[in-house]
């Protein structure tokens, strides 16, 4: 069974100042909640003892007035917050505000050099992102460097860990690009490439004794053998995804809406979500392909969004898993 709700990952806006080639949010959402609607939803979440809210997008800092009001209200309610940002809009005022409200910040940096990062996010973005990161470090804002791993940058993932440490980050994170939004198969990595990444980043994190998180690939436990590496499984997560329109999504990558927070109180929407057949399917069933896997109870088949996109079913194993890849080739 899933745990009691502890957090929300909230795509607060579809708007962004960049046009990254791997963006899974691009061209997906037609409307956005008003600031007042967001605050009402946040207060209802607080009644359910939600402990944290992660704001992402799009780019949360492009709608700073809305983001600011949500964060400050969450602070008043005793809810911790984080922001995922491309870093280009961080100036001293924003960095000081992040510090004042204890906002943990995830900054996207998609390569250890200007050439690689800008190939993914656009010319001139590297220098602006680095400037934002330097302000975070100077003002003691806790932050993590996040790399979206694609065919463009996967060979450089381990180098990014050292850069993250040098920039003053408290940790690094890697996540494989998923085939959604602007991302297409020509930039998504295959299982063999991803396993190479996992081995290298795990070894490097261990060597540097630097914390590393691996997102959306719980099967990484089969490969990443280091006490400094953490993996997460979302099939039984105590976190829900909310889109810019206020819908509870099965996953923020998939346009499978389960309930609408514009029409329902959070408690009502959550009950519908918890009892929905698709949610029960992904949380209670383990793909048959995983029956003899030593980490099946933790991983439970890996990323169900990637399985759905690439294999056509929520309850097939993650196509990036090395055990599955071995069985397919």
Topology:
Blueprint: E1 7-11, H1 35-47, E2 52-56, H2 64-77, E3 80-85, H3 92-100, E4 104-108, H4 114-121, H5 125-138, E5 143-149, H6 157-167, E6 171-176, H7 191-208, E7 212-214, E8 229-231, E9 239-242, E10 247-249, E11 257-260, H8 266-275, H9 277-284, H10 296-299, H11 304-311, H12 322-328
Parallel strand pairs: 1-2, 1-9, 2-3, 3-4, 4-5, 5-6, 6-7, 7-8
Antiparallel strand pairs: 9-10, 10-11
Structure description:
The protein is an alpha/beta fold and 329 residues long. The chain has a single domain (7-286), classed as Alpha-Beta Barrel (TIM Barrel), CATH 3.20.20. The protein is built from 12 helices and 11 strands. The chain has an 11-stranded mixed beta sheet, with helices on one face. α3 (92-100) links the parallel β3 and β4. α1 runs parallel beside α2 (64-77) and α6 runs parallel beside α7. The radius of gyration is 19 Å and the shape is globular.
Report Rg. Answer: 19 Å
Q: What is the β-strand count?
A: 11
Helicity level, as a percent range? 25-40%
- Structural class of the secondary structure composition? alpha/beta
Largest sheet: 11 strands, mixed
Give the SSE order as H and E letters. Answer: EHEHEHEHHEHEHEEEEEHHHHH
Average of per-residue pLDDT values? 95
- Shape annotation: globular
Low-confidence residue ranges: none
Strand order within the widest beta sheet: 8-7-6-5-4-3-2-1-9-10-11
Integer count of domains? 1
Number of helices: 12
């Amino acid at each position: 069974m899933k745990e009691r709700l502890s957090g929300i990952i909230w795509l607060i806006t579809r708007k962004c100042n960049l046009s990254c080639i791997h963006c899974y949010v691009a061209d997906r959402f037609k409307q956005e909640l008003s600031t007042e609607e967001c605050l009402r939803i946040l207060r209802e979440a607080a009644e359910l003892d939600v402990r944290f809210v992660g704001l992402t997008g799009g780019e949360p800092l492009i709608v700073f007035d809305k983001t600011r009001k949500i964060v400050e209200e969450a602070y008043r309610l005793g809810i911790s917050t984080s922001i995922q940002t491309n870093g280009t809009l961080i100036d001293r005022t924003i960095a000081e505000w992040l510090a004042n409200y204890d906002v943990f910040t995830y900054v996207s940096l998609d390569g250890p050099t200007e050439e690689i990062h800008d190939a993914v996010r656009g010319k001139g973005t590297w220098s602006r992102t680095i400037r934002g990161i330097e302000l975070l470090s100077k003002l003691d804002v806790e932050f993590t460097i996040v790399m979206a791993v694609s065919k463009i940058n996967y060979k450089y993932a381990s180098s990014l860990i050292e850069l993250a440490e040098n920039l003053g980050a408290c940790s690094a994170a890697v996540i494989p690009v998923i085939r959604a939004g602007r991302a297409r198969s020509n930039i998504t990595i295959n299982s063999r490439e991803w396993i190479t990444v996992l081995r290298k980043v795990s070894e490097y994190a261990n060597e540097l004794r630097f914390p590393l998180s691996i997102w959306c690939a719980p099967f990484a436990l089969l490969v990443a053998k280091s006490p400094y590496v953490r993996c997460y499984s979302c099939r039984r997560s105590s976190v829900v995804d909310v889109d810019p329109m206020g819908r509870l999504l099965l996953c923020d990558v998939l346009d499978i809406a389960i309930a609408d927070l514009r029409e329902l109180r959070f408690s009502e929407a959550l009950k519908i979500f918890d009892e929905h057949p698709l949610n029960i399917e992904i949380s209670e069933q383990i793909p048959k392909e995983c029956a003899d896997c030593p980490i099946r109870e933790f991983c439970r088949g890996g990323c169900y969004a990637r399985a759905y996109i690439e294999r056509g079913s929520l309850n097939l194993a993650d196509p990036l898993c090395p055990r599955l890849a071995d069985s397919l080739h």
